[in-house]
Every structure is written in structure tokens, then in C-alpha cells.
Amino acid sequence: VAVPPQPGTDMTGICFRDQLWLNTYPLDRNTVFDYFALSPFYDYACNNEQLRLRSIHPLDASQLSKMSGTEYALSEVLEPHLFVFRKQKRDGPEKTTPMLTYYVLDGSIYQAPQLCNVFASRVGRALYHVSKAFNTAASKLEKIGSVDAENDTAAAAAATDQKTAKEVVDIKELKRMDHILASLQRKLPPAPPPPPFPEGYTPPNGAEAEKSLDTPQSENEAAIDPIVDQGPSTKRIK
């Protein structure tokens, strides 16, 4: 069995969980430290362990502030799902230096990665995807260039056939449009009858109508429309 690394080193790749303990004791702010002390992340040389040996609650801030050295503090609590422990070095009652952060998520204990490691991982992942995208684009451009070279020779041979093909296509399109227009005309309803003549107007008979069509009107004589032309506006009945 491999020996676990010493607490304080990079242990972001491991996780601790004791299902038997969780089935016996529910996690809350009073029992979570005892559960955390079972994990390989716990340093037995901390001040909290000295308080446990003296039967004092290991998270008692009034007692920890009187000591110096490494200690664990419960910084965030969201019972019963999330508990965040901060490992820090105490140099005085009001002076502490953060070292590492651990969190208990639904009974599983993890070491939180440092911010610089998170940034390095995200930047490395972004550079990988950008490099992969450039390689894919370059390979596609090479294929397009080879295809264009092959198409240039075929385009010269097909240029002579484009004019005749275009004329054939235009004739087909013209016939298709004629067929569409004829089918639409057959679907249209018949033309409505002409409107009735106004009251008091007598239409000319056939002979007079033909005569009026054969004899052109003089330039001085204007054709009078019984509906539109009603004489000067001064004589109109208001």
C-alpha cells in the first residue's frame, strides 16, 4: 500500500470518504471536524489536535487565538452538504496566514486547488483547443487548394458548353412560366358583369354606336361622360 503524502502537499488528485462513519453520524458543524480528522488531509501536529487531547472543542476560536502554529478553521458552512476548512498559520492573536483550503461536499473531502493552478489549467486547455482549430483549418485549406487546381482544368473545358446549356434552360423556364400562367388563368373566376347605367341615361343602339366609332370627333368637340362630366361647378346642385 502506498503511503499517502504528507498534509500540506499537493493532494488535489485524491478524495476521502468513509461511508460507514457517515451512516452512523450525520454531518453538522459539531461533528464535521472529527470526520475531517480521519482523512489524510489532516495534520496531527496542528493546534486543533492539542485541543482535542485536552477535551476542548478543536474549533474553539478563543483557545486557538492564544496559540501559535498550524491550525484549521471552519470558514464556510452550508449544512449538511458543504463545509469549508481553511488551513492557516497563526503568528499571533490577530495575525494568520492562509495556507490551503479543503472542503467536504456531501461527505466527500477534497483539497481545493490553488488559484494559479486553476488559471494555468484553463489557459492550457484554451491553447490546446485553439491549436487544434488552427490545424483543422489548415488541413481544410490544403484540400480546398488541391480541389481548385483540379477544377481549373475542368472549368476551361466546360466553358464552351455553358452558352448552349443556358439557352436550353431559358427555353425550359419560359415554357414552365407559360404553363403556370395558363393554369392560374383557368383557376380565376369569370369576369363580373358591367355595372348598370345611371338612371335617366339611354345607351345608344348598335347602329349609332358603330357610327360614333367610325366618325372621329373633332378637336373642339369633347366626349361627354354622363357620369363624370357634370358641367361647370357653379351649376351643380349642392
Automatic annotation (TrEMBL):
Gene3D superfamilies: Mediator complex, subunit Med6 (3.10.450.580)
GO cellular component: mediator complex
Residue segments, region Disordered: 184-238
InterPro entries the UniProt entry points to: Mediator_Med6, Mediator_Med6_sf
Domain of life: Eukaryota
Keyword Transcription regulation recorded: yes
Tagged with keyword Thylakoid: no
Compartments (UniProt record): Nucleus
One GO BP: regulation of transcription by RNA polymerase II
Record field: compositional bias (Pro residues): 189-198
GO molecular function ontology, one term from the record: transcription coregulator activity
Keyword list, A-Z: Activator, Nucleus, Transcription, Transcription regulation
Major localization class: nucleus
Protein function: Component of the Mediator complex, a coactivator involved in the regulated transcription of nearly all RNA polymerase II-dependent genes. Mediator functions as a bridge to convey information from gene-specific regulatory proteins to the basal RNA polymerase II transcription machinery. Mediator is recruited to promoters by direct interactions with regulatory proteins and serves as a scaffold for the assembly of a functional preinitiation complex with RNA polymerase II and the general transcription factors.
Family: Belongs to the Mediator complex subunit 6 family.
Quaternary structure note: Component of the Mediator complex.
Name this protein carries in UniProt: Mediator of RNA polymerase II transcription subunit 6
